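FYI - complex with fe (iii) ion, inputs then prediction.
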Amino acid sequence: MPANLIKRDAIAALAARAAGLGQPEGNPRLKQVVNRLLGDLMLAIDELDISMNEFWTGVAYLTQAGKQNEFGLIVPGVVLEHFLDLRLDEAERRAGLSGSTVRTIEGPLYIAGAPLSNGEARLDDGTDDGEVLFMEGQVRAVSGEPIAGAVVDVWHANTMGNYSHFDPSQAAFNLRRRIETDKEGRYKFRSIMPSGYACPPGSQTEKLLQAMGRHGNRPAHVHFFVTAPGYRKLTTQINIDGDKYLHDDFAFGTRDELIPRVERVSDAAEIHKAGLNKPFSRIRFDFTVTKEATGAPASIVAREHAEAA
Ligand code: DHB
Ligand code: FE
């Protein structure tokens, strides 16, 4: 079929009717958004001459993605989650908020309600013989003042790149903890060095990436939510330096400020002092959070999370 078969004002009129713009009832914001998205979609169909077969292939793709609960994976893979971060960064800049640790995507694999401990925690249950990782740092305000009683909610993958809860072979909340900072604002934990995550083989996400000539790998990373009363919630990650996918993350989560130095410790005396018998790694990473400010865009995102069983 040729492209551009339908007049632009006819498309606009169809979108407006379908979105209920002429009706007094309904949610005005929803109508506004649906009108825009439908209009843009019809324009794309007409300009690109999207065939009926292509259209219904897309519908089948999305239906299957929904059945497999994959929208949370597709969104970062098609850069939209990072794009939302860029918008929030810029909105904060315009609201005069600055000095916070850089944010990056949450991803789809957070589970609320991980065990809470004071000052320090061990994240791994000892069943994964990965390289031991010690991580520590301080949570501070932009003024430099340490924040006692902040909560560092941390989660990461195991040495296979898999997350507990989504990987039924791992114990509940393995590699997931909430750590409350001590009176100097410090947190620390012992865990294992994660491996990079790869989109599940055969998933709808992987199929789409493959069809676009892309891979579905992320560099090894550790996720954080940092919260403290009166401060804006920080959603971020650190990436493990040296990872093959460090600057080729399918989910666009890597940011230059989030690649701390990884200290590889192989000195026998240090290993002994740490109570270990093989080399380990150490990362120091401090978090800076900004004070909540009236008029600033929300830093707490209402988002559905899987519930722990
Ligand atoms: C995805 C997985 C992650 O571990 C992550 O941090 C971000 C995105 C994903 O599957 O899309
Ligand atoms: Fe992740």
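The helical segments are 8-18, 28-48, 52-67, 71-77, 80-94, 204-211, 268-273. Residues 239 and 254 are 7 Å apart (CA to CA).
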